[in-house]
Write a structure and sequence with these properties.
With about 300 residues, the protein is α+β, with helices and mostly antiparallel strands. The protein is built from five helices and 16 strands. The chain has a single domain, classed as 2,3-Dihydroxybiphenyl 1,2-Dioxygenase, domain 1, CATH 3.10.180.10. A hairpin with a 7-residue loop joins strand 2 and strand 3. It is globular. Keywords: Dioxygenase, Oxidoreductase.
């Protein structure tokens, strides 16, 4: 069994408009943009990162905004809902804030004994806030949300699958333990995690497969401490029969990827070196940072990428 994984690292999704996406995550949700860079494989497209002050693993939501991208179709084989942790007693504040911002899909409920508020992102993305007692992770308050209400990072993410079995076995192999099952949803938790500790598996045998597009999660990443731990995880996965990519340098972390039995793309990402490797902490996310291989494109990219504040 793998013991090196310590919870979620980041979640990466697709969007249509960079400026709309940036406004929602910074102005509405109050997160910090910790990096403005480009897609390694499509440098004419941004890669935007939002999180806490320094982009701590377990807090980072990232986006590829593709202009003119088709709308995604929700279904099985994808991440369904990305859930953020907020302090107890703060959902009333967030209901008012999201209502004033014109967010769609607002709905309050409870799951696994926790109060939640569901809402949609600008491209129909599935999100929720959940009240968590004593989540002491550092919060970012630079965008007008007070410490009493600010997002602490991820709480969980849900996987929509036709069949739970093989993915449940994979999560168990990855060090997760089954916590509970309620209303057709099985919760898995990572012991001793980073706070972004839960994966909820929703079994939907009669739902069509998802179609990737705006509002869809592209992949979900799990955190390991360093490259040595990542190589241990890679070997364990390959020894079990998974087809895992070589290690890829993503400038702010190293990554490996593999496809799960349920169709969801998993990444294992390192906590090192972090988002301050090429920017001072006080100015994270301000300048356009380019991978070395795309630096020669800077002038054209700065002229053609959609301006964002």
């Amino acid at each position: 069994m793998i013991t090196q994984i310590k919870g979620l690292h980041h979640v990466t999704s697709m969007a249509a408009s960079a400026s709309t996406n940036n406004k929602f995550f910074t102005d509405t949700l109050g997160l910090r943009r910790v990096k403005k860079t480009v897609n390694f494989d499509a440098p004419d497209v941004y890669h935007l990162y939002y999180g806490d002050e320094v982009g701590t693993p377990g807090s980072v939501m990232t986006y590829f905004p593709f202009p003119h991208i088709a709308q995604g179709r929700p279904g099985t084989g994808e991440v369904g809902t990305t859930v953020f942790s907020v302090p107890q007693g703060s959902l009333g504040y967030w209901t008012d804030r999201l209502t004033k911002a014109g967010a769609d899909g607002l709905k309050a409920d409870e799951a696994f004994g926790e109060k939640r508020l569901h809402f949609a992102g600008p491209d129909g993305d599935g999100f929720a806030l959940v009240e968590v007692k004593d989540d002491n992770r550092a919060q970012w308050t630079g965008n007008g949300v007070s410490a009493d209400e600010a997002i602490r990072g991820f709480h969980s993410a849900s996987l929509r699958l036709r069949d739970e079995g093989a993915t449940g076995e994979l999560l168990t192999f990855m060090g997760y333990e089954q916590v509970d099952t309620r209303d057709g949803v099985t919760r898995f938790g990572i012991p001793g995690g980073n706070g972004a500790d839960f994966i909820d598996v929703e079994t939907m045998p009669n739902i069509n497969s998802a179609r990737l597009g705006a509002g869809s999660v592209h992949h979900i990443a799990f955190a390991v401490e360093n490259r040595a731990k990542q190589l241990e995880v890679r070997k364990a996965l390959m020894d079990t029969g998974y087809q895992v990519t070589p290690v890829i340098d993503r400038d702010y972390f190293w990554a490996i990827y593999f496809r799960t039995p349920g169709g969801v793309l998993f990444e294992i990402a390192t906590n090192e070196p972090g988002f301050d490797r090429d920017e001072d902490t006080a100015h994270l996310g301000e300048a356009l940072k380019l991978p070395t291989q795309h630096e020669h494109l800077r002038k054209a990219l700065e002229q053609n990428l959609e301006p964002i504040a």
